Amino acid sequence: MTEPASKVAFQIQPERGISWITLGSSIYSIITRLKASPQIYPKLDLSYSGSEPITQPVILSLPCNGLRLRFDGPDQRLRLIEVLDFSISAFVYKNTDLVRRAKGSEDASQDEATPSGPTFRHVYSRLFGPTYAGEYNAPHADLSEGTYVLSYPGLAFTFPVKHNAWSEKIDFVSILSSNATGPAKSMAIFSGSSWTEARSNLYTKPPSYPRSPALVGKAVETVADEIEEIRVLGGSRLELVRRASPVLTISLSETTPQDLVAELGPPDAIYRKHDRRIAIHAKGKPANRRRSSVSPGLDPHALDTDQSSVQSYTEDSDFEPDLDEERADSSCDECFYNYFVHGFDVLISSPASRSPAFPGFESSESSASSSAQLVATKFLLHGNVPGSFSFNRHRRSRWAIRPTAGGKGPALTSEMTFSEISSGLKEVWRDTYKDESEEKQMQRGMVLNRGWGESPESSIELLGDLEESPTRGKAAEPGVANAGGVMSNTELFGFPGMLFEVLKNDAVSCLTVF
Question: In the chain, what are the domain boundaries?
Answer without folding.
Answer: 9-201, 220-451+486-513
